[in-house]
Design goal:
alpha/beta, Urease, subunit C, domain 1, TIM Barrel, eight-stranded parallel sheet, six-stranded mixed sheet, 10 helices, 28% strand, globular
């Protein structure tokens, strides 16, 4: 296993930057005071003038570099992982768009095959099922004929096939009976998010009280708040659940991003990409699950009706956008890409912060907050 010492950098710990030496050994972190002696026979990374932050975590993405998660082989998933790592994302969930049972099972099998491979990129933490228990009214890019009523036996079957690796699911609270199934979903080890929804306020709150922990791509593909009918949007903002946010400047106006952070606080917003296979590639024609997508000027939309369909965003760009949109200092924005998603999907014990014993998922940023170097589970990523 590779061993490194990162010296002279400003290290992000406990919400602030301070001088620390980071030792990377056996894929884990050990922190030392800046005065500690560094062995002469170990490779040293000089981070003078730079900042060291936790690796980014993307809990909602459908692909990149020509690979659509719904059609991705194990090797394709590794291709996405390598691309993501180069952009600072050191851990991610592959988001499976609503699809047939057979294709969903195939996606699960490819995930398992990928877990058995030797990895050179970001750590694929698990699977996010975006559907199939979603509202047809706010389906977005979801194929309506594949949407389903609540079906816990099917979800259990999926989770057994995935060997417990389905970590996250998006549901619509108004789908009849689905809120009653949330505790059972949690028992399966799945974090529940609400979205693609026109649910009313009370139904949305029932989902939250039953254990829903997040709101999927907040403000997008959902009924917005009215002063007389707060709906799902009002419940998401009022409650303490996490809120996903696509900060590409298209899905959310910068003022809306500022408003979301003002209402929810820096500890309850999760910066996602919701990227599709076009991320990292030029404009053109692409796929999102069974859908045809056209990307023009980096903006992805369904070919049939012009509905926005995911993004071409990467998390390093999301970071710079958030800094630009909000004017907040780096230390206040970092949790949106690190600690918050780690806590949301239950991996904060090993990821999402720089602390002794945690996975060596690290991003070194230069003075312009551009990525200088990335480590994923102690592996130096060659961009």
């Amino acid at each position: 296993m590779e061993r490194y010492f990162i010296v002279n950098g400003e290290v992000y710990t406990d919400g602030t930057f301070e001088k620390k030496i980071i030792e990377i050994c056996d894929g884990k972190i050990k922190l030392h005071e800046p005065s500690a002696e560094v062995p002469a026979d170990v490779e040293t990374v000089d981070a003078a003038g730079k900042k060291v932050v936790p690796g980014f975590i993307d809990v909602h993405t459908h692909g990149a570099v020509g690979v659509d998660v719904n059609a991705a082989t194990a090797e394709d998933l590794e291709k996405i992982s390598r691309f993501m790592a180069g952009n600072g994302t050191t851990a991610w969930l592959c988001s499976v768009l609503t699809d047939t049972k057979e294709q969903t099972e195939w996606c699960i099998d490819q995930f398992k095959e990928h877990k058995r491979m030797e990895h050179q990129g970001a750590n694929l933490l698990g699977i996010h099922l975006e559907g199939p228990f979603l509202s047809s009214e706010y389906k977005g890019a979801m194929p309506e004929y594949l949407l389903q009523k609540p079906n816990m036996p099917l979800l259990r079957e999926y989770q057994e096939r995935a060997e417990g690796n389905i970590r996250y699911i998006t549901i619509s609270p108004e789908v009849e009976g689905i809120t009653d199934d949330i505790p059972a979903m949690k028992e399966l080890g799945i974090t529940v998010s609400i979205g693609h929804s026109g649910a009313d306020y009370d139904t949305s709150w029932k989902a939250i009280r039953n254990g829903a922990a997040c709101c999927t791509h907040t403000f997008n593909a959902m009924k917005l708040m009215h002063q007389h009918f707060p709906a799902i949007m009002g419940a998401a903002l009022e409650s303490d659940i996490y809120c996903e946010a696509i900060c590409d400047g298209r899905h959310l106006h910068p003022g809306v991003v500022r408003l979301l952070l003002k209402v929810k606080g820096n500890n309850r917003v999760v910066a996602i990409t919701d990227s599709i296979m076009a991320a990292g590639l030029p404009d053109g024609k692409y796929k999102l699950g069974v859908n045809d997508v056209v990307v023009e000027d980096g903006d992805a939309k369904l070919a049939e009706n012009g509905v926005r369909a995911g993004s071409t965003l990467t998390q390093n760009v999301a970071l710079k956008n958030l800094l630009s949109f909000t004017g907040k200092p780096l230390e206040e924005i970092i949790p949106l890409l690190t600690e918050n998603p780690a806590r949301l999907v239950g991996v904060y014990d090993r990821k999402g912060s720089i602390a002794d014993g945690k996975d060596a998922d690290l991003v070194i940023l230069d003075e312009e907050n551009e990525i200088s170097l990335v480590f994923a589970e102690g592996r130096k990523i060659h961009r």
